[in-house]
Specification:
It is a single chain. This protein is an all-alpha fold and 451 residues long. Helices cover 68% and strands 0% of the residues. It has 22 helices and no strands. Helix 10 runs parallel beside helix 12, helix 14 (283-300) runs parallel beside helix 16 (334-347) and helix 17 runs antiparallel to helix 18. The two termini are 36 Å apart. The mean pLDDT is 90.
């Protein structure tokens, strides 16, 4: 490592700068220069070796392989995993998603801590909108397993089971189990032998399962990883010739972008989803995509555009026929649209309307969605000046969400906490803080609050 630095004529401080630039390209941050220099000295003197985070950064900064730098213990790690690229071919998608599953399963920390890439949202939506006809990997021969529609049906049934667990217990409950299933049971199917008809069904089904892994990672707070799963799912849906599912994946990206404060990206992704499925759209899909556009617009404060998008969503949902909809979108019903509308009216400061819609948003069958709707109701009461009712409703939400392992749920509570603290102390808020202190989800806001 010292020789590699000397050949380039770099000082240790220059190498620190190169490492910092390399890390930043992949959404990573390094500690202080002095801290990194101490690590470099230790590595170059043979007192320690770079770990799974620093090793790939060193390789990329020097333009050398792990073996060339004497880092053979890191030969199984690939910093390219942190690149948020839209796969160029079905074979590339298979390779990339398989490596992502394995790295995730092995707890590869740089991937779990990675940040989303804003350019990737634009690239993915454009690449998908102008994509050519669906294509398939090169035919496999020899020992590759033969795959039939029964295998595809098993993947679908298993994915549906995990989706129910996600809905009931949150994304961080069974996320690792989903990834393990995909890595160990599904990956071999993608490299198997199948007809074009089976291949189309397989790719679409695996896209749906990978979308679920993305949603669960997003819900667990692994945002860069979630984005990378969404990108792979989009490519798999493209090659499975499932335009509707691909649009729904862009809608998921829109949801995440808005949650992360990238509101323009959120609105653009929702519009791309609407445009991309125009020839095969169903009323419920259009309604859901318009609702995602409204969510993003509301966060920007554009009340008029928000109301227009919500009106389009309601109009589309009124004409829906469940028998003609893909099974995975039928969850989006009047209660779900009421929840989305409540979010929007809260964000454009129409508290009374937000309260009315949030009260109609409780389905009773989707625990996490009901938690979110309850928290929007609480926030709306707070904005309307009814602190006591806001605190009472939040305590209901904490009871409802006790079983949920979800970073998003904690984020909703943390936002409510900021709003509550912002209006000053009162007897209602003091009583609330005392009662909430013993609940698991509220404890997560303590960590968030102390940062």
């Amino acid at each position: 490592m010292r020789d590699a630095r000397a050949r380039r004529g770099w000082s240790q401080l220059r190498l620190v700068s190169e490492l910092r630039r390399t890390a930043a390209r992949h959404g990573q941050a390094l500690p202080t220069d002095a801290s990194v220099k101490r690590r470099l000295a230790s590595w170059e003197n043979g007192h320690s070796t770079p770990d799974e985070f620093y090793g790939p950064i060193l390789c990329e900064a020097f333009g050398l392989s792990a073996a060339e730098l004497g880092l053979n213990h890191l030969s199984g790690h690939d910093f390219a995993l942190l690149d948020a690229d839209y796969p160029a071919s079905p074979d590339a998608a298979i390779r990339t998603v398989d490596r992502l599953w394995r790295a995730d399963l092995n707890g590869y920390e740089p991937l779990l801590r990675a940040e989303p890439s804003e350019p990737a949202w634009n690239e993915a939506s454009l690449r998908w909108l102008v994509a050519p006809e669906a294509s398939f990997p090169e035919p496999r021969h020899g020992q590759s397993p033969r795959v039939g529609l029964t295998d595809v049906a098993v993947v679908k049934a298993t994915s549906d089971m995990f989706a129910r667990l996600d809905d009931q217990f949150g994304g961080d409950h069974a996320r690792q189990s989903v990834v393990q299933y995909l890595s160990r049971d599904v990956a071999p199917l993608l490299t198997g032998r199948y007809t074009e008809a089976v291949g189309g069904a397989l790719f679409a089904t695996v896209a749906e399962a990978t979308l679920l892994a993305g949603w669960m990672s997003y819900d667990a707070g692994h945002h860069g990883l979630a984005q990378r799963y969404f990108l792979q799912a989009l490519r798999l849906a493209q090659d499975g010739d499932d335009r509707r599912l691909a649009g729904s994946i862009l809608s998921a990206m829109s949801h995440q972008a808005t949650f992360l404060g990238r509101y323009t990206h959120g609105a653009t992704l929702a519009r791309a989803a609407l445009m991309g499925i125009s020839g095969v759209a169903t009323p419920t899909l259009r309604a859901q995509f318009h609702a995602m556009e409204a969510r993003a617009l509301a966060r920007t404060g554009d009340r008029r555009a928000t109301e227009t998008a919500l009106s389009e969503a309601a109009k589309s949902l009124d004409s829906a026929d469940e028998d003609d909809e893909p099974g995975w979108i039928t969850y989006f019903d009047a209660a779900e649209l009421a929840a989305e509308t409540a979010h929007c009216f809260r964000d454009v400061h129409r508290a009374r309307e937000a309260v009315a819609h949030a009260e109609n948003a409780m389905s009773g069958s989707h625990v996490r969605s009901d938690f979110f709707a309850t928290m929007v109701l609480a926030d709306a009461h707070l904005h309307a000046g009814d602190t006591e009712e806001a605190c009472r409703v939040t305590l209901d939400a904490l009871d409802l969400g006790e079983q949920l392992k979800s970073a998003r749920c904690v984020a909703y509570l943390a936002e409510f906490r900021r709003h509550l603290e912002g209006i000053g102390s009162s007897s209602a808020s003091r009583d609330f803080f005392e009662q909430a202190a013993d609940t698991r989800l509220w404890a997560g806001t303590e960590e968030n609050h102390s940062v």
